[in-house]
Amino acid sequence: MSIIDKTAAVPAPRGGSDHTGPLLEVKNLHVEFHTRDGVAKAVNGVNYSVDAGETLAVLGESGSGKSVTAQAIMGILDMPPGKIPQGEILFRGQDMLKMSEEERRKIRGRKIAMIFQDALSSLNPVLTVGYQLGEMFRVHHGMSKKDATVKAVELMDKVKIPAAKARVSDYPHQFSGGMRQRIMIAMALALEPDLIIADEPTTALDVTVQAQVMDLLAELQQEYNMGLILITHDLGVVADVADKIAVMYAGRIVEQAPVHELYKRPAHPYTRGLLESIPRLDQKGQELYAIKGLPPNLLKVPTGCAFNPRCPKADDICRTEIPALVPVTEQNGADLPGRKSACHFWKETIHG
Amino acid sequence: MADLSNNHEAPGEPILQVRNLQKHFPLTQGILFKKQVGAVKAVDGVSFDLYQGETLGIVGESGCGKSTVAKLLMNLERATAGEVFYKGQDITKLSGRALKAVRRNIQMVFQDPYTSLNPRMTVGDIIGEPFDIHPEVAPKGDRRRKVQELLDVVGLNPEYINRYPHQFSGGQRQRIGIARGLALNPEIIICDEPVSALDVSVQAQVINLMGKLQDEFNLSYIFIAHDLSIVRHISDRVGVMYLGKMAEIGTDEQIYEHPTHPYTQALLSAVPVPDPEARAHRERIILTGDVPSPANPPSGCSFRTRCWKAQEKCSQEAPVLAVPQRFQGVDSPAAHFSACHFAEEKQVVPVH
User: Fold this and answer.
1) Does B241 touch chain A if contact means CB atoms closer than 8 Å?
2) Which of B275, B287, B349 to mutate to test the interface with A (most CBs of A within 10 A)?
3) pLDDT tens digits for A252-311?
4) Where are the alpha helices (DSSP H) in chain B?
5) What's the rounded Cα separation, in Å, for the pair A266 and A259?
6) Burial of B6 by CB count in 10 Å (0-12 exposed, 13-18 middle, 19+ buried)?
7) Residue B279 Cα, gap to closest chain A Cα (Å)
8) In the predicted model, what is the mean pLDDT of residues B297-309?
9) Which terminus of chain A is more exposed, N or C, with fewer CB under 10 A?
10) Contact B198, B170 (CB under 8 A)
11) A235 interaction partners in chain B (CB closer than 8 Å)
12) pLDDT at res. A12
């Protein structure tokens, strides 16, 4: 898979792995949920990759499968009802789906860590934050309680929680929303993983605090040269931090592009619709562009392109044939590195 | 309180005048003999006007008191002090029949369409419920037709009248909430975060609907939200709240293009811009720390603990909401109400 220009400057991944190629590669991943009403196909063949030091933003609405993909990577999918009928998740070239539970446990937390959306419900309310942060060291490194607490204080300093030493024995409810999210970040960073998956890390926060948290995350990512998968629905946050973007719709990636390219000229009608529905200064008082209709029900995804009932460009072919995610080129056929679109009419969308 | 209307060119009498509104929630100690040990100053002296057919946006971080203001205007909470004049009549002191009559004209649309609709009532019952309380609006035999009309107005199929809320998506539920708000033909609708629980592609649909209804029924909106770009799109005037007080208020252009209060400037600069090109040359003011507790607000200006301009004067003297001295008599968009001792203009919104 071609990667955007920035990666050339990025040093090789840390840790004595001789694997070249991307840090994480998801190949043709399918996830379905067996429910009483039928099989909900949450993820239908997702492909993406992340390199060390790179930020991939996965953009999509609720129900697009962006979080389910992340859970599958982490190995925290509820199975059953979840099921992964096919696909590969390669971490440094090794397929994690074929690993034993024991092997995956060694990767989880140590190599790949996750930051969850709602910090209050992700932290245990009856344990101190110091205990919860130290747990990473006790369980994975077999440290003593005392050493683990020292480490916890270090981590809290790292994520800039003031008076860390005094607050290490506080409980989650004694922290504000932004501080709690910092603790979540500290916990994910504890074992200096190679890859962090952040699932809507700032959605529950206020804008001023959001800016602080995103800044911190970017700073730490650079320091440790981590790969970051940022799952979000906020087009603003994505524009601020991402290197490349994968747009998901109904369990498929509909467009992939480097961040500057995507905003400049989207190659999929769904991406275009999302970008146009952002209120802009020069459109004040006018009607906002709105994508008509609703996101599809995953129990009965429309035939052909899943976006066709809402698409202004939909034609007969869209209703019968599922468009493949194909490379996008310039009008003269020149390569556009890293760009792909799953639309029968991508040419018209990007160049029209 | 100063006359707030001189800053505004809208013709006619304001339909709603809020003067020095306060709500303090008591903090008590003891089980049998409750002793008041303090108060959470959720709203601490807010004043503004609302004119016929206009939209006043209120923005601010969580905990700044914007939702409490909404509840006070609806008289769902009793104000500790201050007045709310609806067409010249103070409604904070009303009760019984007189209050009921006023409430007919001030309706509310709530944030979460999943919890604000009773799951055991049909859509027809939910939208028709206001008619039970105010039977003079629609005689019994006429109600079903009225409800169907309302469904049609908000863009839902009138045949859905016998369905239950769980059969609808989030955007459709919010339309039901809006239909209920419209049922009694109110003059003012207070919208508390009406689109923040919705998906991006559905937000635009609901915003468009609200704009259309405003034109059709000459409604006045108080639009409370934390998404600054949506507030700008829909609002004629915008008020910025911080810790129970109004920090700055003016037309959308005055607030967004010429903010003079440092909090407004920080808030605007922290909003992620959906344009990756702006990443490099955007000046961001990242505030340190969190919003102080409203139970124990700082002396003087409540923003001074996070303000980079704070000086001795700020801790001693609370700034009043008025046109700052340096801009008085100046014909400039910067001459609007701003509660800061050191108000000055600073371009923060990236110029499009």
Assistant:
1) no
2) B275
3) 999 999 988 888 888 899 998 888 888 776 667 677 888 888 888 888 888 888 888 888
4) 66-73, 96-103, 123-133, 143-153, 170-182, 200-217, 228-234, 252-257, 262-270, 312-316
5) 10
6) exposed
7) 6
8) 89
9) C
10) yes
11) 200, 274
12) 43
Q: Are A314 and A292 a contacting pair, CB within 8 Å?
A: no
Cα A35 from Cα A330, distance rounded (Å): 44
**Residue A135: what are its φ and ψ, rounded to 5°?**
-55, -40
CB contact under 8 A, A278 and B61: no
Residues ≥6 apart with Cβ < 8 Å to B113: B170, B173, B174, B176, B177, B197, B198
For all residues of chain B together, what is the average pLDDT?
Answer: 85
Whether B215 contacts chain A with CB within 8 A: no
Does the beta carbon of B267 lie under 8 angstroms from any beta carbon of chain A?
yes
d(CA A178, CA A161): 10
Amino acid at A203: T
Chain B residue with minimal CA distance to A177?
Answer: B290
Per DSSP, B95 falls in state -
* Any A CB within 8 A of B230 CB: yes
Is residue A328 a contact partner of residue A341, using CB atoms and an 8 Å limit?
yes
- State the pLDDT at residue A7: 42
Given the candidates 3.40.50.300, 3.90.280.10, 2.170.190.11, 3.40.1280.10, the CATH classification of the domain at B4-30+37-98+222-338 is 3.40.50.300
Please give the ipTM for the structure prediction. 0.75
Q: Is the pLDDT of residue B10 over 60?
A: no
Question: Among candidates B230, B101, B122, which has minimal Cα distance to B179?
Answer: B122
Q: Does B326 touch chain A (CB under 8 A)?
A: no
State the average pLDDT over residues B113-134: 89
Q: In this prediction, what percent of chain B has a pLDDT beyond 70?
A: 95
pLDDT (tens digit per residue) in B141-193: 888 899 999 998 888 888 888 999 988 888 888 889 999 999 998 999 999 88
- Angle, vertex CA A257, rays to CA A253 and CA A260, nearest 5: 140
CB pair distance less than 8 Å for B204 and A291: yes
Q: Minimal CA–CA distance to A89: which of A71, A102, A105, A106?
A: A71
> A–B: how many Cβ contacts below 8 A?
116
A 198-257 residues with CB below 8 A of B? 206-212, 214-215, 233-240, 242
Q: What is the pLDDT of residues A311-351, one digit of tens each?
A: 888 888 888 888 988 888 888 878 888 889 998 888 888 88
Which tokens in the block code for residue A32? 């379905």
Give the residue extent of every domain in chain A: 1-51+62-99+234-352
Contact B272 A289 (CB under 8 A): no
Range A1-51+62-99+234-352: architecture per CATH: 3-Layer(aba) Sandwich (3.40)
- A287, B275: Cβ pair inside 8 Å? no
Mutation pick from B199, B229, B243, B279 vs chain A, by most beta carbons of A within 10 Å, is: B199
Does residue A17 sit at the B interface (CB-CB below 8 Å)?
A: no
What's this model's pTM, rounded to 2 decimal places? 0.81
Chain B interface, mutation test: which of A278, A283, A298, A311, most B Cβ atoms within 10 Å? A278
Chain A residue with minimum CA distance to B266:
A208
